[in-house]
Amino acid sequence: MKICMVVEAFEGDEIEATAADLSSALVDRGHEVTLVSLTGALHPSAALDARVNVTAFSRGKASVAVGDLVRLFEQDRPDVVVSHGARANTTAIAAGKLRSSPAVPVVAVEHRGFSMDATLSEDERRETALLAVPYSYKDADCIVCVFNSISELMALCDWLTEGAVRVIHNPMVPFDIFERSEHPIDEPWFQPGHSAVVLATGPLHHKQGYDIFLQALAVARYAVEVRGYLLGDGGELEALKQAALNLALEDIVGVHDEVSDKERFLRAANVFVLPRAGDGFDRNLAWAMALGTPVVAPENHPVHEELLRDADAARLFPEGDASALSKAIVDLSKYRKPAEDLTDRARAFSAERVFDAYEGLLKQVTRGGSGG
Fold this sequence. Notes:
The chain is of the alpha/beta class. It is 38% helix and 19% strand. It has 14 helices and 13 strands. Strands 3-2-1-4-5-6-7 form a 7-stranded parallel beta sheet, sandwiched between helices. It has a 6-stranded parallel beta sheet with strand order 10-9-8-11-12-13, sandwiched between helices. α4 links the parallel β5 and β6. α2 crosses α3, α7 crosses α12 and α10 packs across α13. It is globular. The mean pLDDT is 91.
């Protein structure tokens, strides 16, 4: 198949990572793939197979790139277009289904998590869906939702064709994660017999909620023997070290640069903490789940509620509440690993399973079928 993969921008986010992973996997399976960015940077920041063709229009906003896409589709004649994210989706649908000659099949991938107030009436829920879901989605050949909660919202949209919506999670968990996680760690805190280690990892920036993480540890240390380990990259490493010192945590908290084979630490830790929620689902959280490590994440996030609310080895806390986070850390520091329930749930993110699902869907769509 000749596949055109479209994103709004190369921004180093989960959407770019998913599009890059999917592009690399499909080209490795013998398909021809072009990855297109409508705005922003000229080159992707995510790892990408060298056989993937890359095109960047660098327009000021996605909608301005419709003409560029039409010309690309009419010149390259892809068998199918896969777009990621609301703006890229609406732009690809406009170009591929409404303006290109001949029209091109479009699979629109919706990454946004939605939460719906349970007290709303059915009519109010439908009105919410009307505002949240672009009407142009009705022209897509298939809409892929990366979480069940998104598909539930789509189901309220009576302008969408029955059977056009399908759930395929993002390919977050690589096939070799367990092999890489077994590499040794030259760090005394992670050796057997030491205090419980609570790990947080990601960009070392205050906006990621690490101040709340440190405050929670300052309380938790008086209830259980615990050590905190901050692992990541970014310009605020020294500032976070100073914040730990200000809370007199220098004896139980370590702040470290990003390392290779981070999976080792995610598996060896007793608890993984995501202090702040993003728009989607955090890849480190998915890895920790796959490796059987208990997790703590913010509540009132549609994906966390969907995947973690009823899990024995998971706790949800009000984002920004250091006291509640501290209690969750204390609870899970006593949990006996591995958390097999979390490992089972993380299988939905298995890269090979996701790649198989997309390849099967794209073959179906190019044959004239929908994704249902």
